[in-house]
Amino acid sequence: MGSKKPTYEELERQLADTEAILTTLRRGEADAIISERNVALLRVKEVEEALRKSEENFHDSLERSPLGICIVTAEEEILYANRAMLDVYGYSSVEELRAVLAKDHYTPESYAGYQERKDKRKPGDFVPSNYEISIVRKDGEVQHLAVSRAEVTWNGERQFQVLYQDITERKKLDQLKDEFIGLVSHELRTPLTVITGAVNTVLTEGARLSPKETHQLLQDAALETDSLSHLLGNLLELSRVQANRLLLNTEAVSVIRVIQDTVDKIRRQSLAHQFILDIPKKLPAVYADQLRLERILYNLIDNAVKYSPQGGEVRVFVKPEEERLVIGISDQGIGISLSDQAKLFGPFQRVEQSKLDGIRGLGLGLLVSRRLVEAHGGRIWLESEPERGSTFFFTLPLSRR
Ligand code: ADP
After folding, report:
1. How far is CA 307 from CA 46, 194, 360, in A?
2. How does DSSP classify residue 82?
3. What is the pTM assigned to this prediction?
4. DSSP 3-state assignment of 219?
5. Which segments within 292-361 are labelled E, that is strand?
6. Residue whose CA is at the smallest distance from ligand 1 atom 11
7. Among 145, 144, 142, CA closest to 165
8. CA dist., res. 326 & res. 288, Å (int)
9. Stretch 250-273: mean pLDDT, rounded?
10. DSSP letter at 362?
């Protein structure tokens, strides 16, 4: 069987079909190449976007960090400083910060430390990477910072990242704690010296002493014991207040009784003062914690005596008002200026003149009294003029709380 030769038309048709197939194949190939290129371009864009975002995140987290962060060269040139770092120093731009000499950034003692670290770093000697510095802000205020330093790569080069944490408040508290311990030790030692001295004298020389001398020594010891126990009581109250553990044992209390008892206790300490009680015969009972009321009165009457070293009248008065009793203690002593009055109810606050006059005190009595008065729902305030005496007032609500 011989095959039939295709005609010219058939050959032409076959050629056209083949060309059509080839064209379709070529177009597909081109499309595939184009779409591959598009995918690659899209990937590059995605990577670029991810990189931009990551840079933005990094920059944002540096800028917004609550820690002061800066990048410095080995020569201490500042390359970057974040917002918190500028805030710590009180400058608004890195340029402004850079313009200030290192010497002016530090307190003199801290500058010496800075120089020492710099000198040691040059030859590669060991320098701790965590240390504390004290700086002088643009406004002249001194601030204390804890610093951590680490090597990092910045723009492809070896630099140093320095972190600054503000520890000014902690330092102030530490200082206050040290002062407090010093003050308390001193305030405890003074009465203890008198007590031991008096008791030892009576013990060793009792036979030689007249009954009057012995009585005087023991009375001194008893007075100092009272003042010591009062001081410790105030400290204890303060620690209860700080720990939110101040619980009152309220009951119906006769204010007249408590005032008389407290005045009798203090009267023994001073012959130079006349105590005057200006109290109405009939007073409604007050719902109060009796021991705490005694403490408030003791603090205020004791102050009236202490701060009127020339003697004079100490007047305790009570005025009933609609829903409260106003209790006042006035003296004719050294008085307090208006500017000092505002701060005296804070911890360890004493008028400079009281210290100069050698009047002993810890600066806690008024703070404790204020806390105790407020715990009863009352208020405490004062009126005073230098060298014209002072009057301290406090109120106690009459209704049961
Ligand atoms: P302290 O008497 O132990 O120092 P206070 O807290 O009782 O502590 O008083 C704080 C300061 O207020 C005193 O150191 C003193 O300077 C001043 N002060 C208090 N009461 C009087 C007063 N009656 N007259 C003058 N100054 C007073």
Report:
1. 79, 21, 10
2. -
3. 0.69
4. helix
5. 312-320, 324-330
6. 350
7. 145
8. 14
9. 92
10. -
Q: How high does pLDDT run on average in the chain?
A: 92
> Is the per-residue pLDDT at 393 higher than 90?
yes
249: which strand partners?
none
- At 158, is the pLDDT very low, low, confident or very high (cuts 50, 70, 90)? very high
Residue whose Cα lies nearest atom 3 of ligand 1: it is 361
Q: Are 325 and 398 in contact (CB under 8 A)?
A: yes
Cβ–Cβ under 8 Å, residues 78 and 159: no
Can you read off the two tokens belonging to residue 373? 């008065």
Burial class (CB in 10 A: 0-12, 13-18, 19+), 79: middle
Distance CA 32, CA 23 (A): 14
In 207-267 the beta strands, taken as DSSP E runs, fall at 251-253
Nearest-Å Rg of the Cα atoms of the chain is 41
Determine the length of the chain. Answer: 401
pLDDT of residue 29: 86
How far away, in angstroms, is 136 Cα from ligand 1 center?
A: 34
Beta-ladder partners of 142: 136
The encoded tokens of residue 197 equal 């001295």
pLDDT number for residue 26: 87
Ligand 1 within 6 A of 361 CB? yes
- The two tokens of residue 1 are 């069987």
CA distance 96 to 132: 23
CB-based contact 81:162 (threshold 8 Å): no
Does residue 255 have its Cβ closer than 6 Å to ligand 1? no
Please give the number of the atom of ligand 1 that sits closest to the Cα of 335. Answer: 25
